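Q: Given only this backbone (469 positions), what sequence would you predict?
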């Protein structure tokens, strides 16, 4: 039921149930907002688009129920896991990324699912730990200099993949890139359109590709293959797959993918804080008590893990709660959990529309490359933003040492080493070598533990002043 205070302030609190028409329209708006980024992750990692939509919807519903319908967040595919998932799939299913025409890689997905379930377990355990001992203790082991630096590595290490896709047709890629940037900058605050720069950029790039096709040389393959749509059924069962637990490389994938939670846990927590501010402001305007969902950090991570558990079991992309949807809720002042559940049901139904998945798969590689240049860079810059917002003292040598080591080992290793692997083979866990991102995170965490166990102050070294304070 919509709530109206004497000041005629309109808004939906988490427990409010809007009229059915409003619930469906607001739910569809949530789906439209998550759709571009969620589907793009599936394209980049060669997961099934239908399963990804199905898992996004079901995972969101499960996460909302796990949080006792107290935390209104929508879950979609996470960009943070792309690098390590593509690396794992390339290693253990070598044919997966060699054929640009191959849009779905089931064997690679099955091995990645094992790692996504590992991520779910890590998130749930960390959430339960925070509920028991508090977040401050965790922050000592995973301070912002580590989480921010790992986020930078995740984004920048993907640069080569973005450029490889863009090289399929540079002109289309750069037009897509520029148009997407223009939309993201100049459409801010313009309602729903302002929330969809990726979708609008993809549509613009798609139209440009169609124009290029009109002037292609005789006999040349079209950039947009409409044949995929004609071959697809209107209604189909998504290609649900089950995790390949029997794969001898399963443990390596679990550790590699699960470690990326280092970057996503702070991101999820930041989203929770953001939503708490918005909801409490609406509660104040409506004359109600604040809900202070910011105190539910541990429960929020358990909900995150529950989403990834669903996603990992079905064969969807590793998930996270979406900042885009949070911003949409802040604009519309709609924080209704029933609306988000309606959005989840809509996403599930979309997963069964075969021609929708086929249409998505006709997006030219160069268009995806143009979008990826922007999005992967944003991931890296978000790591910088995390370090800034937490006022990390980069005048302190130990912080410089941790951050610098993570950056060079992670980015340099991903781009410069064969297959992005350090040649340190560990039986069962990493029989082929340790992925660069994983290795950089392990070294960063180890250095931080060294400074905790043997603090510089023991040797009379004073911490340097932080000019950000």
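A: Predicted residues:
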């Amino acid at each position: 039921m919509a709530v109206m205070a004497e000041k005629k302030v309109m808004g939906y609190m988490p427990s409010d149930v809007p009229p059915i028409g409003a619930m469906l329209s607001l739910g569809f708006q949530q789906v439209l907002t998550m759709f571009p980024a969620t589907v793009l992750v599936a394209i980049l990692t060669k997961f099934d688009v239908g399963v990804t939509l199905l898992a996004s919807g079901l995972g969101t519903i499960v996460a909302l129920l796990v949080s006792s319908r107290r935390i209104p967040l929508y879950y979609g595919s996470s960009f943070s896991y792309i690098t390590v998932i593509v690396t794992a799939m390339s290693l253990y299913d070598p044919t997966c990324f060699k054929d640009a025409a191959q849009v779905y890689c089931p064997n690679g997905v099955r091995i990645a699912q094992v790692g996504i379930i590992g991520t779910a377990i890590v998130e749930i355990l960390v959430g339960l730990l925070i509920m028991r001992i508090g977040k401050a203790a965790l922050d000592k082991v995973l301070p912002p200099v580590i989480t921010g630096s790992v986020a930078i590595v995740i984004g920048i290490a993907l640069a080569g993949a973005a450029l490889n896709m863009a090289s399929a047709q540079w002109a289309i890629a750069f037009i897509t890139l520029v148009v997407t940037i223009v939309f993201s900058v100049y459409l801010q605050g313009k309602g729903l359109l302002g929330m969809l720069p990726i979708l609008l950029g993809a549509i613009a790039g798609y139209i440009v590709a169609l124009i290029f096709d009109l002037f292609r040389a005789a006999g040349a393959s079209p950039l947009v293959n409409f044949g995929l749509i004609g071959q697809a059924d209107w209604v189909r069962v998504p290609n649900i797959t089950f995790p390949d637990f029997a794969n001898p490389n399963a443990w390596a994938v679990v550790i590699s993918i699960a470690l990326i939670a280092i970057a996503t846990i702070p991101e999820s927590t930041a989203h929770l804080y953001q939503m708490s501010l918005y909801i409490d402001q609406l509660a104040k305007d409506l004359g109600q008590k604040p809900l202070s969902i910011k105190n539910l950090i541990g429960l929020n991570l358990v909900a995150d893990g529950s989403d990834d558990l669903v996603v990992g079991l079905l064969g969807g992309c590793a998930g996270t709660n979406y900042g885009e949807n949070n911003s949409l809720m802040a604009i519309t002042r709609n924080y209704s959990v029933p609306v988000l559940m309606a959005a989840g049901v809509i996403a599930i139904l979309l997963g069964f529309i075969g021609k929708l998945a086929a249409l998505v798969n006709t997006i030219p590689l160069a268009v995806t490359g143009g979008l990826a240049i922007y999005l992967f860079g944003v991931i890296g810059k978000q790591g910088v933003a995390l370090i800034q917002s937490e006022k990390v003292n980069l005048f302190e040598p130990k912080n410089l040492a941790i951050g610098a080591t993570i950056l060079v080992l992670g980015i340099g290793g991903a781009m410069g080493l064969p297959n992005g692997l350090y040649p340190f083979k560990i039986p069962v866990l990493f029989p082929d070598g340790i992925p660069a991102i994983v290795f950089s995170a392990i070294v960063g965490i180890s250095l931080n533990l060294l400074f905790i166990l043997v603090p510089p102050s023991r040797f009379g070294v004073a911490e340097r002043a932080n000019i950000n304070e």
